[in-house]
Amino acid sequence: MSEVLEERAESIRMIRDSAGAVAPRGGDSKRVRGLRFVAPGFDKRVFAQMGEFGWIGLAVDETAGGAGLGMSEAIALNEELAAGLAPEPLIPAMLSARLLAAAGDQLLLAPLLAGKRVVLTAWQERADTLAAPGNADAPRVFIPQAGGADMFLVPVREGAGLALYAVPAAGADVALEKTMDGGYFGTLRANPAKGQRIASDISAVLDDALDEAALMTAGAMVGLMERAFDMTLSYLKTRQQFGRIIGTFQSLQHRAADLKIHLSLTRAAVEAAAAALDGGVAGDARKAAVSKAKARAGESGLMVLRQSIQLHGGIGYTDEYDVGLYLRRGMVIANQFGSAALHRRRFMALAPEDAE
């Protein structure tokens, strides 16, 4: 058992190290700033590099061409990339890879895993939901970085099942809206019948895949929190006021300690949920574990990010200072795959009575 844990710890360490090649913590933010509000909002060459590293298929079974790793590794990867503010839509691509692998469609899966094609899943019909889509004619909203997609996967309710269609992005009716972090959300109005039907029923796998995407998003929030907190500690240790380092002021020390507690509790919740999923937990217990982590990450994440801005004082509110980039990204991803309120309600409905 100890050997298995040591192997997983080494795997996670290597993944964290590899993420630094794309989005180093504390690195130059020039690339990120250069992509802000410039469609499609990310660099397809970097997305291709993510495919070359095997990240898109990290949690896809080896028999389907993936790496066959678990949620613990996926969490570590997305945490590191978020700490480096990488804008590429890795989590949405990983969601699509999960669906294509379940559908057995190698024609789309292989180029997606290689990073040669950007395939995004247009599943959401309204704000703040994890409910499976229904009406084929309903617009699909909040598709991250939709302007860079080569193909959309569109789940459609057909009888008792949930069919999956592949709709080419070329010629599709996609409206883009800017997000505050410099990226884009897309709204897709498409007729799935004009696409290719690649699976007859993905109901079960979509539910699981959305939960995994929610947990990876919670991991990304941990990365944002931690990097912003580290920047704040560094600022408190160097900024002087009234002839003293402001980090020596007791009131600021107490506030920093509170942020550290929130960060530690969030990390613990996310890593516990990842371990539970890797251990095979299923059903309501699986959903409850994910919701506990996502609710904690959404609430504590935004609190830590906002407090980090405040502890920097006036400079923290300027666009030129990098700590604000983390708050903007956090505000964009906080409600993706369910808000804190949605996941809190789901946790209370599904968690066992003795759950903390």
Walk me through this protein's architecture.
The protein has helices at residues 2-19, 30-35, 44-52, 71-83, 90-103, 106-113, 203-238, 250-278, 283-311, 323-333, 340-350; strands at residues 119-121, 140-144, 151-158, 161-168, 173-178, 184-189, 196-199, 240-241, 244-245. The protein has a domain at 204-350: Up-down Bundle (Butyryl-CoA Dehydrogenase, subunit A, domain 3), CATH 1.20.140. The chain has 356 residues and is α+β, with helices and mostly antiparallel strands. Strand 8 and strand 9 (244-245) form a beta hairpin. The model has no long low-confidence stretch (mean pLDDT 94). It is globular, with a radius of gyration of 20 Å. The protein starts with a helix and ends in a 6-residue tail after the last helix. A four-stranded mixed β-sheet has the order 1-3-4-7, with helices on one face. Strands 2-6-5 form a three-stranded antiparallel β-sheet, with no helix packed on it.
